[in-house]
Amino acid sequence: MSFSDSISLVTGGAGFIGSHIVDKLLETGAEVNVIDNLSNGNLSNLENANNSSKFNFNQANLDDSVLKKN
Ligand SMILES: NC(=O)c1ccc[n+]([C@@H]2O[C@H](COP(=O)([O-])OP(=O)(O)OC[C@H]3O[C@@H](n4cnc5c(N)ncnc54)[C@H](O)[C@@H]3O)[C@@H](O)[C@H]2O)c1
User: Fold this and answer.
1) Do the Cβ atoms of 7 and 33 come closer than 8 Å?
2) Most buried of the four, 2, 22, 41, 48, by CB within 10 Å?
3) Euclidean distance between CA atoms 70 and 49, whole angstroms
4) Which atom of ligand 1 is nearest to the CA of 62?
5) pLDDT at residue 66, as a whole number
6) H or E stretch at 55
7) Nearest residue CA, atom 12 of ligand 1?
8) How far is the CA of 20 from the centre of ligand 1 (A)?
9) How far is CA 29 from CA 20, 37, 47, in A?
10) Measured CA angle at 47 (ends 41, 48), to 5 deg
11) Looking at residue 37, what is its pLDDT?
């Protein structure tokens, strides 16, 4: 399956499960955006992803202020 024209968002992407999802999405060609507050995740889980120009990391807490519509 190709996601080459897709833009994805992985919440908790620096965690155990999330980082594997990130790597798989990048393998399919998707642009991958991660939001993680690093409360339990680690940037070392994203070392491979960091080499991709299609990867963006945002350190933020997923709370109501992030999800609230303007
Ligand atoms: N080698 C292994 O087999 C191994 C290693 C690690 C974990 N595990 C297992 O994996 C499971 C946990 O994996 P997981 O990926 O669900 O958990 P995780 O804690 O690894 O990932 C959750 C991610 O969400 C982030 N996060 C949490 N609250 C947030 C918030 N409010 N806003 C933004 N980011 C937030 C954390 O920083 C973390 O990166 C457990 O069952 C654990 O035992 C197995």
Assistant:
1) yes
2) 22
3) 31
4) 32
5) 64
6) strand 55-59
7) 16
8) 11
9) 15, 25, 17
10) 125
11) 95
Residue that has been written with the tokens 């680690």 in this structure:
42
Separation of 12 CA from ligand 1 center, angstroms?
A: 7
Q: Which atom of ligand 1 is nearest to the CA of 38?
A: 37
User: Confidence class of residue 27 from pLDDT cuts 50, 70 and 90?
Assistant: very high
- Does ligand 1 come within 6 angstroms of the Cβ of 39? yes
Ligand 1 nearest atom to the CA of residue 36, by list position:
34
- Tell me how far apart the alpha carbons of residues 65 and 70 are, in angstroms, rounded to a whole number: 10
Question: What is the SS3 assignment for 26?
Answer: helix
pTM of the full structure: 0.89
Compute, in degrees rounded to 10, the torsion defined by CA atoms 39, 40, 43, 44.
160
Residue with tokens 């889980």: 45
